[in-house]
Design a protein that fits this description.
With 144 residues, this protein is an alpha+beta fold. It has two helices and eight strands, in the order αββββββαββ. It is globular, with a radius of gyration of 22 Å.
Length: 144
């Protein structure tokens, strides 16, 4: 009787552990790596431009499979516009919100020019997730 109870307990523990592992958070290996190019490479935070443009490419996947409504820049900003250009998905973000966010970054760093990594993340229509990063320079040319 004790052996049967022990086997049942071990079986339940095994099922629970495998279930938790299957339901656990995604690991970096589960996320498709995206090649990301953010323009402009150097962003003058006093500029009057309308867009921050991002080109996204997925190696081994078709960019037409990207759910554009899932894309976020820095987990905060959704694109206002998107278009497929060959192997790339081009998305455009409203510059004013992104610039306000980057002003805060620059202010807290106490500098007038810094390099920052910006992350783009989203998912395919299948539910698979992707993410990529590019480094740009932000600057306040007025600050001395």
């Amino acid at each position: 009787m004790r052996l049967k109870l022990l086997l049942i307990t071990l079986g339940l523990v095994t099922v629970i552990l495998f279930g938790l592992q299957a339901l656990g958070p995604l690991t970096k290996a589960d996320i498709i790596e995206a090649a990301v190019d953010i323009k402009p490479d150097t962003l003058n935070l006093n500029r009057q431009g309308r867009w921050i443009t991002v080109h996204i490419k997925l190696e081994g996947y078709n960019v037409s499979d990207i759910d554009t409504s899932s894309i976020l820049l820095e987990g905060l900003f959704a694109p206002e516009w998107s278009n497929i250009e060959g192997d790339f998905l081009m998305v455009k973000f409203d510059a004013s919100g992104v610039i306000d966010y980057l002003w805060n970054v620059l202010y807290h760093m106490g500098a007038n020019r810094i390099r920052v990594d910006l992350t783009i993340a989203g998912q395919l229509r299948s539910g698979a997730q992707f993410a990529g990063m590019d480094t740009i320079t932000i600057m306040d040319p007025i600050k001395h």
